[in-house]
Amino acid sequence: MNEVLERGPEIPAGTWEHDWVSSVVAKAEEFSGQPSRWNGKLYEQDGPIAGRCLPDGSMTISREHVLDAARPAYTPGHVLTADERTAAAGATRMAVFQARHSMSEVGDDSVPGATPIESLEDIALENARCDRFSRTYGDRIAESMTEQSLSVGAHGPAFPAYSAATDHLQYTLGGATGLGHNQLGDLIDKTPRTQRLNAIADRALDHQVGDLIPESHRAQLREDLTGPLRRGLGGLTMTELSELTHPGSKHKWGWDSAEWTEVEFTTNLGDIKEHYESWNAEHPGEEPPELPDSVRERFVDREEEIQQIWASKGWPAQQPVAGREQAYYERLPDYGPLTDRDREIAKLQQFLWSHTAPSQRTDSAVDTSGRPDNVRQIGSARKPDRGIE
């Protein structure tokens, strides 16, 4: 995917539009305490997309849905109508989201054990943290830039499933990591995206087992703990991107996913801790062996048990099924009349295939409407009567 070709016209420095985006980024840096990767190059973004942060450090922003919608609220002396106020609040929130996204260090996903950039779990965690920032600081950023009253953070999360899961995990993993909710959030935000899950695992291992673990064992133990996090966060993709699922139901799926993710994570951690502490008690000063096969079998059994629990709850298939070719995900079901739900699930399965199949991942992740992972489609909120449990 050629991102240069996706850019619209450049928005030059010195224009109102460029100055406003620069101000939003500067304020976001101030509140987050982290520098932005934005290099000052700004381009127009076409289509129903708020904007993008591109790998070269440039950004795109929608003129129609962000810049034009925000401008009346930031024009001195202009009296806002109710519709203008609502539109400006939404536009500001989208700009703050993009500004916060530009502050996330990407990292190197070619390193063994790294989380691939734009993998399902990376998309979930990054969007949740940027969404949390925009809801927390959006009002204060707007207040610092205009005298107009804008309710930037008054609405619910843009990503209900991702946000519910991430927020809940920040609480439930407190015991395992020894960090409070905000401290764990800071650890995530200040760690490159490719190493965030490893950082959580390392923190838990250091807090619970300390120096009892030989460094040569750590990579495998990280995988034993990051596995539940990858499945719990990445598995929410179909739920989050569904246009037929009510936001309240998405929130519930995210919360429940966090509950079972925490169970698998902390139980695995408990088995690891018991192994190394028992060996140290019986053989003080001797280097311990790696986890025995019996413990690893428990990890596998635990993973399968949780998958069965989700299946019993009716959670839609979250990953492509082994043995099925890509063509399977490129056709609609051929049985009976197709419902809107059938069509949506087929479309989402195609999306999952493109993100999880070998050699199928592209340079820029897009959802079923063609948007990248780090943006929110304009008008994506669903009416309550569209919800399907």
Order of helices and strands: HHEEEHHHHHHHHHHHH
The biggest sheet, with number of strands, parallel, antiparallel or mixed sense and barrel status, is: 3 strands, mixed
Which percent range describes the beta-strand content? under 5%
Q: What gross morphology would you assign?
A: elongated
Characterise this structure.
With 389 residues, the protein is mainly alpha-helical. Among the domains are: 157-318, no CATH class; 324-360, no CATH class. 55% of the residues lie in helices and 2% in strands. The chain contains 14 helices and three strands. The chain has helices at residues 3-6, 16-32, 63-70, 82-101, 120-145, 160-172, 174-177, 181-189, 196-208, 215-234, 237-241, 247-282, 293-313, 340-356, and strands spanning 42-44, 51-53, 59-61. A hairpin with a 5-residue loop joins strand 2 and strand 3.
List the helices and strands and how they pair.
Blueprint: H1 3-6, H2 16-32, E1 42-44, E2 51-53, E3 59-61, H3 63-70, H4 82-101, H5 120-145, H6 160-172, H7 174-177, H8 181-189, H9 196-208, H10 215-234, H11 237-241, H12 247-282, H13 293-313, H14 340-356
Parallel strand pairs: 1-3
Antiparallel strand pairs: 2-3
How would you sum up this structure in a few lines?
The protein has a 3-stranded mixed sheet.
Keywords:
disordered N terminus, three-stranded mixed beta sheet, mainly alpha, 389 residues
